[in-house]
Amino acid sequence: MQQKLSTKLCVYFLCLIIGLCAIYHVGVQYDLKQTRQNSTENLEKLHQYFTSELARFTSIPNLVRQNTHMLNLLDEDTTHDLKPLNEYLADIQIASGASDVYVLNEQGWVTASSNWQASHSYIGSNFAFRQYFYEAVENGNAIDFAVGLRSGARGIYISQAIEQQGEVKGVIVVKVNASHFEDVRDSLDTGQQHSFILMDSSGIVLMSDQEKWRLISTKPLSQTDIDEFDASRQFSGREINTQLWRFDEQAERLQISTEGRLAKNFVFAKKSLNSLDASLYLLSAIDDVTANQWSRLALSSVLLLALFIILEVILVKLAGYKQLLFTQRSLEAQINARSEQLLETQQALLRTAKLATIGQLSAGINHEISQPLTAMSAYLTSSKRLLLKGQYEKVQENLILIEDLIKRTHTIVAQLKHFSKSQKPNLALHKLKDLFSNALIIIGPELKKYNIELNNELDEIEVWVDPILCEQVFVNLLSNACHAMQKVQTRKLTITNRIDEGKSSIKISDTGIGIESHTLESIFEPFFTTKSGNGLGLGLSISKQIIHSFKGELSAENNSDLGASFILTLRTSIGSDPLSNEKRI
Question: Is the C-alpha dihedral spanning 4, 9, 12, 18 positive or negative?
Answer without folding.
Answer: negative
